[in-house]
Amino acid sequence: MEDIYQPQQIEKEAQQAWSDGQVFKAVENSTREKFYCLSMFPYPSGRLHMGHVRNYTIGDVISRFQRMKGKNVLQPMGWDAFGLPAENAAMQNNVAPAAWTYANADYMRNQLKALGLAIDWDRELATCRPDYYRWEQWLFTRLFKKGLIYKKTAPVNWDPVDNTVLANEQVIDGRGWRSGALVEKRDIPMYFMRITAYAEELLSELDNLPGWPEQVKTMQRNWIGKSYGCEVHFPIEPSPLAPLPMAGEGSQKPLSPRERGWGEGDALKVYTTRPDTLMGATYVAVAAEHPLALAAALDNPEVAAFIEECKQGGTSEADMATMEKKGMPIGRFVIHPLNGEKLPVWVANYVLWGYGEGAVMAVPAHDERDFAFANKYRLPIKPVIVPESWRGKEISAMTFSESVAYESPDEAPTLGVEGESLVWLEWDERFAEHGICVKSGDYDGKDFQEAFDAISADLQEKGLGQKRTQFRLRDWGISRQRYWGCPVPIIYCPTCGDVPVPEDQLPVVLPEDVTIDIGSPLKKMPHWYQTTCPECGAAAERETDTFDTFVESSWYYARYACPDSSTSMLDNRAQYWLPVDQYIGGIEHAILHLLYARFFHKLMRDEGLTPGNEPFINLLTQGMVVAPTFLRESSDGKKHYFNPADVDVSTDDRGRPVGATLKADGQPVIIGGTEKMSKSKNNGVDPQSLIDLYGADTARLFMMFAAPPDQSLEWSDTGVEGAFRFLKRLWGRASTHINGAFAHYPNRKDLHVQDWANFPLEDSHREVRRIIHVSLKQANFDFAKHQFNTVVSGAMKILNALNDDKSFWDGAVMLKDQPERLASFQLSAAAVAFEGYSILARLLYPIAPHICHALWQNLVPGIDILEAGWPVEDESALAQDSIELVVQVNGKLRSKITVPASAGKDAIEATALQDETVGKFIEGKNPKKIILVPGKLVNIVV
RNA sequence: GCCUCGGUGGUGAAAUUGGUAGACACAAGGGACUUAAAAUCCCUCGCCCUAACCAGCGUGCCGGUUCGACUCCGGCCCGAGGCACCA
């Protein structure tokens, strides 16, 4: 074999062999245990980035590992092909989104192949192909008929200049990214999937996913947000004004008193998780879109102006939560359901329409947000809960406007005087916690649960509320006013209404040959949207909205089982392959994508299409790839970023970076933070240049070695060189032996020791073998944990062990006059080395498959490494005659002792106490206690 | 703002889950080989004191539990991911 490591040649040959032999084609075989390993499919953005390389290397490592362990492995790949960037690119470069997408996929497919991934390419799919999306249109129509899909209006970001809907990403500081116009909220009709119908199951099934990271399950639990609370009805004081007969302009129907929100006997509904604080409610707040607010706006221009103002800004929750809390009274009042007090109704921008009831009761004393709002607008603050520890203490009353604050002698909230008022100056977290009721009439002295039960029972008796569980999870709006997506299969008929497209007319094909400017081209294509009603045959129009692209990515994992099925969404091959045994993807998908995919699995299960309740048994969430940033700031404050490849970094004598200059002009640049590789920060490193320079194995090895998969990975050019050096060393050492010592045993069976117990192993080789097997045992443990960085360091230790010990081969020199002993010594050395390299090749195969494939061919000609079996440590090789123990005195490390491995408790303690250094620290005192941790340490407490 | 995760040498990290902190690497420094450079090989490498050893200090900060804490508990600071129309 070659002495020099030539990755380009090795990788080409290995990939050719895999491709010619169809080695990674997955075939259903009910007699074999299957393993479905899936990495999140890429958006075809143009080129592979480092995040992809990391994701797909992790998946490939797991796939090849399982394959070597004998599983029937499926590892597919495809394209998440619909999405916004294609439309942006289309506008920029004047190409059709379809053509752009297909070209990108073609380029990226070649890049993936160059990485040497063990993928069954026969199963490749692209979500923008009609043969794929026709089945989600089919499922949509089924769910529509089941009532799991419905239509309602919901707010979107509206750009009033471009007259178009913007994605949240396209809203920057409240303005449209192209027009710069202030964005408004606008209500438009959309289709919703009733994911809330599955909320309970999506929550409870998380407990049956032990293979998911706890972090992800916690995030999903919080997102679903099941809460136990109480619905409270506040009867509305009748309006002093007569109801107006008409709603706003253009409306044909007069609003009913209920729609106006002020009829006799109407009540304002709120939901609260803190009914125990109900006696402390001092006002109620409604969303700007609430009927009560809209009704008030008709008579009150100030309220109308405020509601207008609330329409400004984006729709994202982060926007809503960080904006300044504003509100105003609408001049209406409600009656407190228990004490009959009149409470003012406010309209507030922090109350969200469409979340719960669009109205909240405000208890400023016990809710931080209400507290800030009440202080700002001088609303009464009425404490009714004190900490449990105050029970039984003297509580003195202090007045504050119309309400009362309580002060315990030793644990008082901060009170102060401002002008003539007594003000609760600072929010005190203790008052947000559960406590005991005070100044609450009959409920005084009750704890949280007692008050919760008593108050909800009283409300129920009065018909003004009851206990209720609620979810934070909202139904999933799937309509998008965009072109490059799957058409929503609905036809609007003037007489029959919204009619789902019949199964035999599917798919509704998206026209691909279009030009894009602002807005969806579908709306300008009458020949496409004009059609006939499937029910009555009259002229009708197609829906021009498309699906959220999360819909495609919610079921692709299942379609890989049978990507060519033309008669059904899924066929019985899905029963064999599903569920996915290992799913790998970025942590950024922890909530939305993974929740939607779980939801779809249940929808498909209920259609009889998928087995089991959950799609992904094991989940690995990989961290991001980050790199340093380099920039210059121009005089107007604009930042210009430079690619790390174009920058020279100077370091001080410790290796700390102290400055950087641009290669092009030699002038200094600012060293920025280490951030996620991105186009905007220009800190991406192109994987292609890496593969071209060092080969795929180096790229893969570096990615696996630099950090454990779930942590972020810092890019390092020198780290890559280090990975390359290791592979070069591995190749060099292995070839020396294969061409040298091993060549003396043409039949490799002579080197392959079956029975080490009866093999004449030289003592100088026994220790090397022990280190190899200790490292292998650790590596196997780490492999099971998916901690590939320490698997690599284990492999490095094995190579170092095979290479370190001078006496390993040199001992032969002393024996050159004793031919029999010499032959025995040489066989002993060669057998240990042969075993060592055969372990190394198999251990590293999942991570660096090309080089290991080639090494194995030379080590064991005639047997494919995939058939060689996974290496397992030999327990008998791990044994040691004596072990080293640490001796602590009072928990501090003071000495080390060596004892026979068989030494008992008393013998170890005696040895430890006799130790000279230990004696110095005991200073003749009697040990109070001696703690012995077997195989680890002795701690002497004096 | 809310939810979640993280913070260990000059750097990436390890520590089998309460038992020797820094494995394995990278960088840096020194040396060998070389006419020279590259490549390769060998040595040193947490901080502090020291000629050296010993001792002392040390896992973001403050406090607690324990014979013993990177690991467990409470509080704080900083960073990252998500927040429902980026994927």
Fill in the keyword field for this structure.
alpha+beta, 6-stranded mixed β-sheet, 34% helix, 22% strand, RNA-binding
Entry summary:
The chain is α+β, with helices and mostly antiparallel strands.
What does the model show?
With 942 residues, the chain is α+β, with helices and mostly antiparallel strands. Helices cover 34% and strands 22% of the residues. The protein is built from 27 helices and 41 strands. The strands form 13 sheets. Strands 32, 33, 34, 35, 36 and 37 form a 6-stranded mixed β-sheet that branches. Strands 2-1-30-31 form a 4-stranded parallel β-sheet, with helices on one face. A hairpin with a 3-residue loop joins strand 40 (929-933) and strand 41 (937-941). Helix 3 crosses helix 4 and helix 19 crosses helix 20. The longest helix has 26 residues, at 819-844. It is globular. It starts with 6 loop residues before the first helix and ends with a strand. Mean pLDDT is 88; it is low at 242-252. The chain binds one RNA strand of 87 nucleotides through helix 7, helix 11, strand 23, strand 24 and helix 17.
